Amino acid sequence: MPAMENNTSSEEILWAGRSSQVLNAWTYLLSLVLAVAGLVLMFLLAKKLSPGMLRSASLFMVGGLLAVIALLALRVWARVRFRTFQITTERVHVITGIFSRRIDDLELYRVKDITVLEPLGLRMLGRASIVLNTSDRSTPTVVIQAVPEAEKLRDLIRTHVEACRQRKGVREVDYDRLDSTPPK
């Protein structure tokens, strides 16, 4: 991708991606089980009930239940599919939305701490989540879930956080005292 122009330097995309649909595995499995159960119920109702109003109403209700299950699974899929992350030499962009988009920007120098979470299920699939704790008031935490090679991405982010701080002459200072006076 071409570099984006900035007032002080050129901004380049270092990494772009999205979370894995592995996050929704249990939802998909439950949807599949409920859909199969609904189809079996529909088949049994069609055989047991005599043709008429009761049979039609029962089949309509089971069909409606199957449609609701499909819509819920589609919603969970879309939530992950239409959320992308871009990490540049200056910022972290979180882009969400299907019809209307929302782009949240986090200045890279505001990243205070980076954590890699590897729950067993994701670890078995070669995925992990990265948690960025920041000093940004509107976005104190950014979570990039279920990405491959998370440790490499963490190191890439860390390297560019430090480089961005040096370029901009920014230092991160934490005030842990109650009187909130800066240390000498």
Textual characterization of the structure:
The protein has 184 residues and is α+β, with helices and mostly antiparallel strands. The protein has helices at 25-48, 53-81, 120-124, 150-168, and strands at 4-5, 10-11, 13-18, 83-88, 91-96, 102-107, 111-117, 127-134, 141-148. The strands form three sheets. It has a four-stranded antiparallel β-sheet. The chain has a three-stranded antiparallel β-sheet with strand order 7-8-9. Strands 1-2 form a two-stranded antiparallel sheet. Residues 1-7 have low confidence and may be disordered.
Notable characteristics:
9 strands, 3-stranded antiparallel β-sheet, 4-stranded antiparallel β-sheet, alpha+beta, elongated, disordered N terminus
Short summary:
The protein is an alpha+beta fold and 184 residues long. It has helices at residues 25-48, 53-81, 120-124, 150-168; strands spanning 4-5, 10-11, 13-18, 83-88, 91-96, 102-107, 111-117, 127-134, 141-148.
Largest sheet: 4 strands, antiparallel
Total beta-strand segments: 9
Determine the number of helices (DSSP H or I, runs of at least 4 residues): 4
Query: Roughly what fraction of the amino acids lie in strands?
Result: 25-35%
Shape: elongated
- State the helical fraction: 40-55%
Mean pLDDT level: 88
> Could you tell me how far the N terminus lies from the C terminus, measured between alpha carbons in angstroms?
45 Å
Biggest sheet strand order reads 3-4-5-6
Low-confidence stretches: 1-7
The radius of gyration over CA amounts to 24 Å
